[in-house]
Amino acid sequence: MRYQRAELPLRLDGLAAARRFFAGCFAERDPSVESLWVAHIDHSAHCLHLSHHQGDSCGVDFPLRTIIIDAARHGSSAMLLAHNHPSGDPRPSESDLRATRRLASAAQALDCRLVDHLIFAGAECTSLRSLGYL
Asked: What is the pTM of this model?
């Protein structure tokens, strides 16, 4: 796990901005390895903190506790998630949906909103919010 401080005033104020930003994150990584990125944002959609969690070719751990601790530590108003599917299939798995729901519920207790969870697979990207899961 590696943490990075996002360059301010990076603004992730919509699906297009989030897709561009996270596509750049994945462009610098091995596409055969699953990775999870978490952007913590303030009330104006400025990125406060960015964390990266490295997995392997079969998946990536979803560190719910670490993500919630980071949200509290950085005073996040909201979060955006993105991970990749090395398989090339951008559809969410049951595991993706379950982890996303758990995080959304836990974040709500901190008055923090899960804005979206994007899944990248090759040139394709799926938004769980657009699919109605958030």
From this structure: 0.89
CATH number, position 64: 3.40.140.10
Instruction: Indicate the SS3 state at residue 27.
Output: helix
Distance separating alpha carbons of residues 94 and 79, to the nearest angstrom: 21
Domain count of the chain? 1
- The 3-state DSSP composition of the chain as helix, strand, coil percent (nearest 5) reads 30, 30, 40
pLDDT at 3: 44
pLDDT of amino acid 33: 92
The DSSP result for 55-73, as a single string, is -BTTB----HHHHHHHHHH
- Segment 16-36, tens digit of pLDDT: 999 999 999 999 888 899 999
| Half-sphere exposure at residue 69, Cβ-oriented, CA atoms within 13 angstroms | 5
